[in-house]
Amino acid sequence: PHIAYRDNTNQDLRYATYNGSAWVTGTVDTAGNKGENTSIQLGPDGQPRIAYRDVTAGNINYATYNGSSWSVTTAITGGDDAGKISLAFNGSSQPAISHYPYPTARLRYSLFNGSTWDTTTVTASSDTGSSNSLAFTSGGLARIAYMDFTAQSLKLASFNGSSWSTETVDASGNFSSWLGFALDASDRPH
């Protein structure tokens, strides 16, 4: 297991892993107010990657571990990214982040192209996506489950390689602000 989490007392991003007999913990980022809304994945090399909110700067940072030390870069700048952050890797092993920045209050998707992060807006309606979860199909196409609080519904956004489409999954009531999302081996959403 690998866990990314925030130390509220010190406002730091922390990381824990189990080495087979004991938990090993450490601090990833301590400069200012860091570590809100963490999302962790293992990269193609098996090492952890963490996307998280830099509260001090109002950005989303991306931390990579090389086996001995952490490197932190700013992935998405500007805006107050207060909603949930979800990190995943596409079929080309490039990291991607779904996020919800203020003041636009619209679901966004950022993909690392090898040198910079390309960001697109997924939903046109406001107050959509503060709770979101990103996954990729076996063909490397993005899928994002998210809450649309204006419409009071659960939705799924699908990228076809050039544009986004959305569909309503459940519109039966006022839902919680948390969700989990995964695709199975046949690319069926759950």
Describe, in short, the structure shown.
This protein is mostly beta strands and 190 residues long. It is 0% helix and 54% strand.
Describe the structure.
The model has no long low-confidence stretch (mean pLDDT 91). The chain is mainly β. The protein starts with a strand and ends in a 20-residue tail after the last strand. It has strands spanning 2-7, 12-18, 23-29, 34-42, 48-54, 59-65, 70-76, 80-81, 86-89, 95-99, 101-102, 108-112, 117-121, 128-136, 142-148, 153-159, 164-170.
Give keywords.
mainly beta, 4-stranded antiparallel sheet, globular
Structural class label: mainly beta
- Largest beta sheet: strand ordering: 4-5-6-7
Roughly what percent helix? Answer: under 10%
- Write down the overall mean pLDDT: 91
Count up the helices: 0
How much of the sequence lies in strands comes to: over 45%
Distance between the termini: 22 Å
Quantity of strands, as a count: 17
- Order of helix and strand elements from N to C terminus: EEEEEEEEEEEEEEEEE
| Global shape | globular
Please describe the topology of this protein.
Layout: E1 2-7, E2 12-18, E3 23-29, E4 34-42, E5 48-54, E6 59-65, E7 70-76, E8 80-81, E9 86-89, E10 95-99, E11 101-102, E12 108-112, E13 117-121, E14 128-136, E15 142-148, E16 153-159, E17 164-170
Antiparallel strand pairs: 1-2, 2-3, 4-5, 5-6, 6-7, 8-11, 9-10, 10-12, 12-13, 14-15, 15-16, 16-17
